[in-house]
Model the fold of this input.
Amino acid sequence: MQFLSDNAASVHPRVWEAMRAADATDTPSDGDRWSQALDAAFSALFGREVAVLWAATGTAANCLSLASLCQPHGAVVCHEEAHIEVDEGGAPGFYLHGAKLILVPGESAKLTPDAMRMAVDPIRDDVHQVQPHAISVTQASEYGCCYRPEEIAALGALAKERGLGFHVDGARFANAVAWLGCDPLDAVGGADTLSFGFIKNGGMSAEAIVFFDPAMADVARYRRKRAGHLQSKGRYLAAQLLVMLEGNLWLDNARAANAAAAEIAAACGDRLMHPVEANELFVTLSPEERKALRTQGFSFYDWGDDAARLVTAWNTRADHVSAMTQAIAQL
Amino acid sequence: MQFLSDNAASVHPRVWEAMRAADATDTPSDGDRWSQALDAAFSALFGREVAVLWAATGTAANCLSLASLCQPHGAVVCHEEAHIEVDEGGAPGFYLHGAKLILVPGESAKLTPDAMRMAVDPIRDDVHQVQPHAISVTQASEYGCCYRPEEIAALGALAKERGLGFHVDGARFANAVAWLGCDPLDAVGGADTLSFGFIKNGGMSAEAIVFFDPAMADVARYRRKRAGHLQSKGRYLAAQLLVMLEGNLWLDNARAANAAAAEIAAACGDRLMHPVEANELFVTLSPEERKALRTQGFSFYDWGDDAARLVTAWNTRADHVSAMTQAIAQL
Amino acid sequence: MQFLSDNAASVHPRVWEAMRAADATDTPSDGDRWSQALDAAFSALFGREVAVLWAATGTAANCLSLASLCQPHGAVVCHEEAHIEVDEGGAPGFYLHGAKLILVPGESAKLTPDAMRMAVDPIRDDVHQVQPHAISVTQASEYGCCYRPEEIAALGALAKERGLGFHVDGARFANAVAWLGCDPLDAVGGADTLSFGFIKNGGMSAEAIVFFDPAMADVARYRRKRAGHLQSKGRYLAAQLLVMLEGNLWLDNARAANAAAAEIAAACGDRLMHPVEANELFVTLSPEERKALRTQGFSFYDWGDDAARLVTAWNTRADHVSAMTQAIAQL
Amino acid sequence: MQFLSDNAASVHPRVWEAMRAADATDTPSDGDRWSQALDAAFSALFGREVAVLWAATGTAANCLSLASLCQPHGAVVCHEEAHIEVDEGGAPGFYLHGAKLILVPGESAKLTPDAMRMAVDPIRDDVHQVQPHAISVTQASEYGCCYRPEEIAALGALAKERGLGFHVDGARFANAVAWLGCDPLDAVGGADTLSFGFIKNGGMSAEAIVFFDPAMADVARYRRKRAGHLQSKGRYLAAQLLVMLEGNLWLDNARAANAAAAEIAAACGDRLMHPVEANELFVTLSPEERKALRTQGFSFYDWGDDAARLVTAWNTRADHVSAMTQAIAQL
Done:
């Protein structure tokens, strides 16, 4: 009974089918019709013209996004526990050629305009100090919490006011939109770029980089190739993204994962360290309790000494959810 | 009838099966058993202990290899038409943090020890000049020609003598080994690292970076993550590589492609611009001749004004080969 | 009456003389005799064989040092208020090709082994996390406080134990040695590299990068040229360093600056925010008090809303010191 | 009798005086009045508004210029023997974060519009190929030859037409203007940035980076600090530049050097490998002839096996020039 990660989940059957369909005939690399269909498909989803590139990992999607918004001598403002800071092996430093991350604290890994101002306002406009060029927020956050449309719009507005680029790391964007129940566009707060994750949500190897200013994609295409992320058989990546948008498979998958998380959350009571607004649960559990759960066949990661992280996925089985719910209730 | 590129070819059915098999159960990202099996599988192939990392593109494989062999203030010596110089969008400059490529001429895109010495010997050991740190050769070359074991060994020996790292770009390494009929180890000339290509040879999205000094892989792992090339569902990449080695599928595929190329080559006579030693043909063809071929349903790329490049693949159909052979003969 | 910065001070007359002496005859750039004399002069000072390069700024000296100790995918551990973090315009990100700074808190901008362990121990040996490669400490610290020989030796020992490089930013190293009264070697705690500052201490444009492992300098020479820091008329920089070591001019200058600071410190009482162990004073002063001092002709920088930074230099006049001492006493 | 390099020459007495004058009083680093006077002084010289930053080396001046004109994923087109390619230790790769140099041949190290087109036109607008972002030419060229105003204007026009930045490496710009006898502005051909050299022309440690679009300087200031090239006592660099412009000392020095070269050139006849249009002579001289000259007390560098490079400077003595002239005539 696996609650380790949504990355551990299998690939959705419809994604397999779409990839196989893309295999039917030989297809040249350049301008395959799947990749060419991305702009229209995502433009329809967002209700405005966007340009979209696939990338094989969330780290690449984030860093190619940020490279569009921050020059090497600038800085990206982000939460101190942002994925780009703590989990990407220094990739932003690589892709941004040494640009800096300015770290900001905040509840449940969410930024607020006030916290951002406290970080940015003391920076003198002086060559000795690295100037902020962009802001990056994660929707849903690293603790599985969602920015409400008005919250993320306020951050976006602040970015614009200060002349900063605005990036949304949406590794679990689907879970956020499913939970918020809003239009996808309202969940990005006027972002310039969005890393729209599909791999944790039933995909195999394709994330979408959404450029809300399509011209940005033209430059990003060069950077993607330069980073070794242009796959010659990219049609198999594009096919994953396209099928996800068809009939809102992405939303269905996310809703399933969220529902599983919500069911478990209901049994956790005061054990919850953060509101459960997506598919992650951070649960206070003593070492003995974690041991007891593991003995019953549950797998998950420890979160420090006294807690665990449980993650549900599009394919988390109902019986596993029930079992976990009961097991926690009985601790 | 597609002779555009081996990149345009479909994925081999056994590769699909292996990927599906890796899908049977949820699997955590870290240390999945497919990725963990790579070292042993490739060590068996090469008859010595190697360490292997997957990467999604040949560009990434080359650049992660080279980053192990060349510091930012150094240079890589390569052929002036090497893929790393002309076709990777400047990726070596990115991955090697501004290291330089020193370009050397040579017949059929092959380097010789003499040509290398002519390029390297005049470099003064002086801080004004960028010092060579590594050599990179392509096996088979960009013109589909193979280094004989003794040829590549001579280059490897020269590299060692000068204290330079030695990298082999093996985007079509399978085709080279199939043509040479030698032990794979004899085709790398004592290389430190090999980019062993599978995507052009029936794979989907996985190349192998082979480190003949396994300790190098430990550092390269960090660089791979930092470049956004660590896929969370990497088991699907590892599965592609493993199945390719099973029963020598990689060699069978390459032999099929080579045989198709050889059959067409026999009809080309003096039109051949380079010996056909792998699965690429560079054929003198006037604009009218190319037009005639295209009218008959053949697709391929122009190579300058008076020639074309034809590429065969693991799945090039016998009837297409016969048709092309006849069509060229009748020009 | 200038207490703004030791950078604002004039150049010592003996430094001028030495530069003029280096001007007497035309001298080729390569291997001028002044630059060649540096190794011996500094080896004599430290009582062991070192190799020394000049650099025109402390930022360049720090970053060329660190580039010898930290690879692009690694991190440097330093104080959260270290000069390399807050005052160098992101230069470490540039010179280290995107390596990270891991920030550690500590009283008076000093690191302790415990604080370092708290920062470093939680880093998993996992490609998702940037691994520490080096430690950098500032002697005297950014708040003008000195590591005692045993304190800095403990940090150096910890670095060695963890396999980390150890760098000392000695922008005010002279002031530290003068205050500690110890052998210069005892003030570096077994460092691999030292940025030995002279510009704040009466020089014009030359700092020394001291490599305690001389072989490191051979590579650093290439990096210095690559950074555009190899001056063709470098003899004028070397001459500055050599004259500073002659008759211990560097120590005399530092003692003069320290003595001026100590005299003012004696008048500050509880106003002192940090012990005065070099030539900087951080003094609690209300806006009104600062205004009063400025009205009397003193210049200095504010330090936040309720304090000021006063810096003395080799040439701070005794009457200015007396005046400042009196003025503070009378507030 | 030194003909090695103009870098080997001493510093002009008026430069010394100006530096000493800048030493008269303590001066804060930020916005010293010498540095602040640069824009006006150079704007007067060029007859239009420019912004100017000092830098301590020509390499830094070139690379900071180019970083303003070329993004990391782009390329700079330059002569295959350009200083930035062969003599800067890979600094452009460092400052431009891995951007590429596209090398173009040309007589006497000069580019022509035709040669440029031949290099640039075949580059497909395709992510696999690095796109040109800027052109860099050297005035006077690496072989001491000058672009006539109409020649450099044609290159500048081509750059504009193609949307490329245009940089002039003017390490010996003074010698070029002196020889051309034209307005300085006419010698730069509509450049965006000029590295205006003073060090080879009697300065000590200051070159000027001239931005013909002053807004570019605002960003370059950040890059200069980030590269460790912001000197805290920068007033001594600014003072060098200012005195050079006073009364056209820069032109007088260059004229003296050029005249010395011209006098020697007159004795060289067919031995001259390139026209002598500045202060460098490339002279066919057999090993025996070079030995004979050295025996007579002349120092200079070999240029390959059968030639020598002679360089004159602002302070080359008339008797040395006569002696060299006679010695060559008598060979």
In short: The domain at 13-249 of chain C is CATH 3.40.640.10 (Aspartate Aminotransferase; domain 2). Chain C has two domains: 13-249, 251-329. Residues 249-268 of chain C form the longest helix (20 residues). The radius of gyration of chain C is 20 Å.
